[in-house]
Every structure is written in structure tokens, then in C-alpha cells.
């Protein structure tokens, strides 16, 4: 056993990272074997604060990096120079980086430069196309190069790492911590602040949930907005709910096409508990989000992914997720097929949990304990058929 407790620094900066590190931070803080330090780059502001509040996480450092319309290079250079003095001050043994954002890539690099061991949570996701998602595929590959311990969510992600010659003993299959967070959410009492969403809990209208934000989709976002417009006009009896990302480029492309339609509900980003409850209330999900692709299948909701490829093939193979690209007519045709044909809908509406069983944070912490010499790994994640989760 080391004489002093290993210091584990968790760095995050955007909404999905906050959701996915929350179960790990909570587990580390409750574990006497470690000193835990939490650093927020603040790449996101309001959208991050919503998650911190819900999970009760107060970062020890907040770099407050968010500035409207920053370039990727600006985010990365400000994050790198801001992280350096914090890492030098804290001297962590381990830096945890989650996923594939600019914050994640920078945290891994800054930790590596300062001699910490890098642990990558959600390691090994790949599309094989360096330009899609942009810049996330490149970020993941860069992080992989400086990582000591790769916490892969699934066997498929482990295989991707093995194909890049990462040693087997440096990879642990944990499941994705997003499912730990979703299971935590399933125990919360949820109240919708927006009266239009609250009213949906009293009716049985079909709800189509739509989210979009991907950088490589910004050009195509008017197509996505147009598809929602066509669908909302074709199905006036259904409700289309769009919690819109705060990026003005997303809002400017999507809102003008749909905001006047009576059966479209546009909101600001929803707090995580309200968003997962809305997902649970939905009939169908249209999205380009990574996290939503992982959550919706375990709620038994069919997902049409508005992208050309995905680094999350597991639910596509299971039949709950379908890639439909960003062409307006294709999105409309695929959604109409599910909204108008019950057999097609039922074939996709199977609850599957290829991404986790709620124990991913425990496996991650055990693997970090082994890496730092204070414990042993536990059994890896094996997907199995589980009861669908229910939220709200
Ligand atoms: C980032 C990540 C992406 C992740 C997404 C999750 C990178 C390169 N991209 O993309 O991988 O899927 O977060 O949502 O790291 N904004 C606010 N308030 C907020 C957050 C964002 O106003 O709380 C606005 C700002 O105008 C900001 C813009 O959204 O400039 C874009 O934010 P940014 O972090 O650059 O990229 P995302 O598209 O959010
Ligand atoms: N989410 C949320 N409120 C919203 C929309 C999404 O809390 O209004 C959650 C969602 O449950 C998922 C995560 O945010 O866990 C996904 O974030 P996003 O789509 O921004 O990023 P990605 O996963 O694509 O990186």
C-alpha cells in the first residue's frame, strides 16, 4: 500500500461529461482509499451548472472557460494553459478524462505532460472517420495515445482499442457510467418546470423528442429543422418536443422553421432529471447526441440517429437505433414509417441495455484502485437482457 492516498483528479467541462463523471466522482469521494479533486474547465456554463446541481457536485476548481462562439483552438489553448497550474499545484497521481470533447482531450494531454497517469473513461469509441464526429473522433484517438488505463464501455470498444495495439491488460470493460446516472435518475421524483411538458403527463398524446447539436451537422441543421416542420405538420395530433442546445447556431437554424407550429414545444436545455423523464414519456426519439443514443435504448425507445455513422453500433445491431443521416426527406420518411406503422415501431421498441448495468462507476474505481496499488479490479461488464428502466 502507498504511504499517502493516491490523488485522483477528475476533469470535465461539458454537459455529457458532467453526467458521465458524476457517478465516478460520487464513488471516489465516498472511498477512503483516495483523495479526490474535481476540476471543471467550464467549457459549458448553464448546461453544466444544471448537472452539477442535480448531482450535488461542487468542483474544487472552476476555470469558467465558456465564451460564446469560441473556436476549437481557443478552447483547447485556454484549457491547456488553465489546467497546467492546477495540476502542478495538486500533483495528482491520476487524471481522469471522460469521452471526446475538447476538454477531455486537453485534460488528458495536460495530465500526461505533468507526469500523471491518465485514465480514460468511455475509451475505445470509434467511427473510423477522422472527420465524423468532428473533432471528437480525433480527440478520442489522441487521448488513447497518452492513456495508461482505458475504461471501455463495451466489448466492441475494447476490440477497437486492441486493433490499435493497446495492451489487453491496460483495458477494462466497465459498461458506460451514463447508465449508472440514468438508474439514479429513475429514483428521483420529477416535476416539469415548463407547463406544456407538465401537461403531457396527464395526456396520452404521442411525443416525439428531438435533440441536435453536432458540429458537423451545423450546415445540415436547417434540413433537420425542415424535417421536424414536415413531421409536425403531417402529425398535428402528436407533440414534438425540442429542448434546444444553447449554441446560437443550432437555435438560429432550427427555431424559425418550427416555433410557430402549435404542436411543437421548444425549450431551453432541460435539467437532466426532466430530460430523462421526457425521454421516458416519448414515443420516438430523433437525435444526433451520443448520450441520448445510449440512454433511449434502455428505456425501450426507438431512436433515429441523424448522422451518417455512429461510434455506438451496439444498439444499431440490437435493432433499437437506426442511422438515418441528415437529409430532410429521409428523416421524414423514416419517422413516418415508425409513426404510421405499428409493426415497424414494435420491431424497434425493444428495451436493450448494451451500454451498461449501473455498476460502471464501481468497476472504474476498482480498476483505478488496482492502477494505484490500493485494490483489485472487479469482474468486467457483460451485457444481458435487463428489465427496461423507467424514469419520472
Ligand atoms: C461540445 C463538445 C461536443 C459535445 C457537446 C455536448 C467539443 C469540441 N464539443 O459541443 O463533443 O457533444 O459539447 O453538448 O468539445 N453554450 C452556451 N452555454 C452553455 C453551453 C454552450 O451558451 O452552457 C453555447 C455557446 O455559444 C458556445 C456554443 O454553445 O460557444 C458551443 O459550445 P461548445 O462547447 O464550443 O461546443 P458544443 O457544440 O456544445
Ligand atoms: N440532456 C439533458 N438535457 C437536455 C438534453 C440532453 O440533460 O435538454 C442529457 C442527456 O440525457 C444525455 C446528455 O445530456 O445524457 C447528452 O448530451 P449532449 O447531447 O449535449 O452531448 P453528447 O452526448 O452528444 O456528447
TrEMBL record:
Gene3D superfamilies: Glycogen Phosphorylase B
Entry-linked PANTHER family: UDP-N-ACETYLGLUCOSAMINE 2-EPIMERASE
Similarity remark: Belongs to the UDP-N-acetylglucosamine 2-epimerase family.
Pfam families: Epimerase_2 (PF02350)
Enzyme Commission number, as recorded: 5.1.3.14
A GO MF term: UDP-N-acetylglucosamine 2-epimerase activity
Enzyme kind, highest EC tier: isomerase
Lineage start: Bacteria, Bacillati, Actinomycetota, Actinomycetes, Mycobacteriales
InterPro entries: UDP_GlcNAc_Epimerase_2_dom, WecB-like
Keyword annotations: Isomerase
Keyword Isomerase tagged: yes
Protein name as catalogued: UDP-N-acetylglucosamine 2-epimerase (non-hydrolyzing)
Keyword Isomerase: yes
All residue ranges annotated as the UDP-N-acetylglucosamine 2-epimerase domain in the record: 27-368
Amino acid at each position: 500500500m502507498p504511504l499517502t492516498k493516491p490523488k485522483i483528479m477528475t476533469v470535465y467541462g461539458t454537459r455529457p461529461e458532467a453526467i458521465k463523471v458524476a457517478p465516478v466522482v460520487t464513488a471516489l469521494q465516498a472511498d477512503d482509499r483516495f483523495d479526490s479533486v474535481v476540476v471543471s474547465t467550464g467549457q459549458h456554463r448553464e448546461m453544466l451548472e444544471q448537472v452539477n446541481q442535480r448531482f450535488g457536485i461542487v468542483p474544487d476548481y472552476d476555470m469558467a472557460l465558456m465564451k460564446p462562439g469560441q473556436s476549437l483552438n481557443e478552447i483547447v489553448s485556454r484549457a491547456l494553459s488553465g489546467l497546467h497550474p492546477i495540476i502542478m499545484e495538486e500533483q495528482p497521481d491520476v487524471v481522469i478524462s471522460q469521452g471526446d470533447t475538447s476538454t477531455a482531450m486537453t485534460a488528458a494531454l495536460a495530465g500526461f505532460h505533468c507526469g500523471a497517469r491518465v485514465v480514460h473513461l468511455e475509451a475505445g469509441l470509434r467511427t473510423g472517420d477522422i472527420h465524423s464526429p468532428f473533432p471528437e473522433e480525433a480527440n478520442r484517438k489522441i487521448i488513447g495515445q497518452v492513456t495508461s488505463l482505458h475504461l471501455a464501455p463495451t466489448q466492441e470498444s475494447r476490440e477497437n482499442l486492441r486493433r490499435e495495439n493497446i495492451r489487453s491488460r491496460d483495458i477494462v470493460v466497465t459498461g458506460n457510467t451514463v447508465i449508472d446516472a440514468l438508474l439514479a435518475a429513475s429514483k428521483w421524483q420529477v416535476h416539469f418546470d415548463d407547463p406544456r411538458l407538465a401537461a403531457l403527463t396527464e395526456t396520452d398524446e404521442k411525443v416525439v423528442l428531438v435533440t441536435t447539436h453536432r458540429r458537423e451537422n451545423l450546415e445540415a441543421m436547417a434540413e433537420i429543422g425542415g424535417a421536424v416542420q414536415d413531421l409536425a405538420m403531417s402529425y398535428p395530433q402528436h407533440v414534438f418536443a425540442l429542448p434546444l442546445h444553447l449554441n446560437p447556431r443550432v437555435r438560429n437554424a432550427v427555431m424559425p422553421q418550427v416555433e410557430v407550429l402549435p404542436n411543437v414545444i421548444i425549450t431551453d436545455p432541460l435539467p437532466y432529471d426532466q430530460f430523462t423523464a421526457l425521454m421516458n414519456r416519448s414515443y420516438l426519439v430523433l437525435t444526433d447526441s451520443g448520450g441520448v443514443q445510449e440512454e433511449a435504448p434502455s428505456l425501450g425507445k426507438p431512436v433515429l440517429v441523424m448522422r451518417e455513422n455512429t461510434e455506438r453500433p451496439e444498439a444499431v445491431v440490437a435493432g433499437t437505433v437506426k442511422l438515418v443521416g441528415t437529409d430532410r426527406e429521409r428523416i421524414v420518411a423514416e419517422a413516418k414509417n415508425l409513426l404510421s406503422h405499428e409493426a415497424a415501431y414494435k420491431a424497434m421498441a425493444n428495451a436493450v441495455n448494451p451500454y451498461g448495468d449501473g455498476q460502471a462507476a464501481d468497476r472504474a474505481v476498482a480498476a483505478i484502485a488496482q492502477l494505484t496499488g490500493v485494490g483489485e479490479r472487479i469482474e468486467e461488464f457483460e451485457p444481458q437482457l435487463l428489465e427496461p428502466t423507467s424514469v419520472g
